[in-house]
């Protein structure tokens, strides 16, 4: 009989994977100037490396979730982390810009499916009233990465080389695969699972509206974060040594948000999502006004980070509206957020390229957050307050 670990141990093992993913995703943004120099390209072109990873998430999340519908969740999580390790290991050895684009795309493929399946496993181990808190624990791995992993990656890139960052992430992914193999519950594949059943989620309007909220509303945070390092040096006048500190403050905001906000979301899920979107819009609008001084930009960066809890809230919302297509819907949440990861940097870069200045990303971000809020209003108008649907998110455990 397989040993059963407490939910907290399982959540921690899964969160290590979130830490690895968060480090590579956000560090690539903060290391954009180093990537540009190392690959012999300009800064806007280096942004395509970030977009390639996001595209991998967008494509890989639904594809892997559907194709792996008949696999046991524990087996799938291990396989996804091994894929992630391979992609990042290859990124560390990329000989030029075009190979780097390809390897970052490969690295992004397992991202969404891992988080989606990990969220379902985490939620299945706790009572219904604690689902969002459980999902938040998994996402804490990602947010702690923004506090610790990304600043350390920034320093590692400055001291040694940006390639070391991707190599360390590959090692973290291998560690995650080992921990999941040890701690995750041994489950049997769902006998009723099928591609057709997973695709059932796509027939539900509330699923699409929830995904659209994330794809548009979360883009504002990425618009600012991608160009934060450049804004700090070019506008704030901060030294490069201060960049890791500011990134850590942003990550601290995300971490606290994912600890506190899920407790409210488990009581009032959709109102919490709407409140987060308005909060983000307001803080992003203040960002250009605060960018002139390190003392004013720090609290605003922290406040923008708090809005990152939107991902956890929408993950739980998808569990409620996806019907039997739980795996696909859960994975698609990360496709949506990496669509935001592509839209935000693109829109922010467009504003900068047209001479509006580094701080214009704040106004771009505010517009995107408000766009997400408009979609939230539509979702509320057409069934946003409906009761949770029957879900099949509990794995069948073997004994």
Automatic annotation (TrEMBL):
It is found in: Cell membrane. Its main location: membrane. Residues 10-383 form the Major facilitator superfamily (MFS) profile domain. The keyword Transmembrane applies. Keywords: Cell membrane, Membrane, Transmembrane, Transmembrane helix. GO terms for cellular component: plasma membrane. GO terms for molecular function: transmembrane transporter activity. It holds the Pfam family MFS_1. It comes from the Bacteria. It is a multi-pass membrane protein. The chain crosses the membrane at residues 12-30, 50-69, 76-95, 101-126, 138-156, 162-186, 207-229, 241-261, 268-287, 293-314, 362-384. PANTHER family: CHLORAMPHENICOL EFFLUX PUMP RV0191, PURINE EFFLUX PUMP PBUE. This is DHA1 family inner membrane transport protein.
């Amino acid at each position: 009989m397989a040993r059963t670990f407490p939910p907290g141990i399982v959540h921690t093992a899964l969160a290590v994977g979130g830490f690895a993913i968060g480090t590579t995703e956000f560090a690539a943004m903060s290391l954009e100037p180093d990537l540009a120099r190392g690959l012999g390209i300009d800064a806007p072109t280096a942004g395509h490396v970030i977009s390639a990873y996001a595209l991998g998430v967008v494509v890989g999340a639904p594809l892997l979730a559907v194709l792996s519908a008949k696999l046991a969740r524990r087996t799938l999580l291990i396989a996804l982390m091994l894929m992630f390790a391979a992609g990042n290991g290859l990124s560390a050895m990329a000989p030029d810009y075009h190979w780097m684009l390809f390897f970052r795309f490969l690295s992004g493929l397992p991202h969404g499916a891992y988080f989606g399946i990990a969220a379902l496993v985490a939620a299945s181990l706790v009572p219904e009233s604690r689902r969002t808190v459980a999902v938040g624990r998994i996402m804490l791995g990602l947010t702690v990465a923004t506090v610790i992993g990304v600043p350390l990656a920034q320093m590692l890139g400055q001291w040694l080389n940006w390639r070391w960052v991707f190599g360390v992430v590959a090692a973290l992914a291998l560690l995650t695969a080992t921990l999941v193999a040890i701690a995750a519950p041994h489950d049997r594949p769902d006998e009723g699972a099928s591609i057709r059943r997973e695709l059932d989620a796509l027939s539900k309007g509330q699923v699409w509206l929830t995904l659209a909220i994330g794809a548009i509303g979360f883009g504002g945070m990425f618009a600012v974060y991608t160009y934060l390092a450049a804004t700090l040096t070019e506008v704030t006048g901060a030294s490069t040594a201060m960049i890791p500190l500011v990134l850590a403050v942003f990550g601290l905001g995300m971490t606290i948000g994912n600890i506190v906000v899920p407790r409210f979301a488990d009581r009032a899920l959709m109102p919490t999502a709407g409140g987060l979107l308005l909060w983000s819009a307001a803080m992003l609008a203040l960002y250009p006004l605060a960018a002139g001084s390190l003392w004013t930009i720090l609290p605003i960066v922290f406040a923008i980070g708090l809005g990152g809890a939107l991902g956890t809230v929408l993950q739980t919302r998808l569990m409620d509206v996806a019907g039997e297509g739980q795996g696909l819907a859960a994975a698609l949440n990360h496709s949506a957020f990496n669509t935001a990861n592509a839209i935000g940097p693109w829109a922010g870069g467009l504003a900068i390229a047209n001479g509006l200045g580094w701080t214009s990303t704040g106004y771009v971000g505010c517009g995107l957050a408000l766009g997400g809020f408009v979609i939230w209003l539509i979702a509320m108008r057409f069934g946003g307050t409906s009761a949770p649907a029957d879900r099949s998110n509990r794995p069948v455990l073997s004994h």
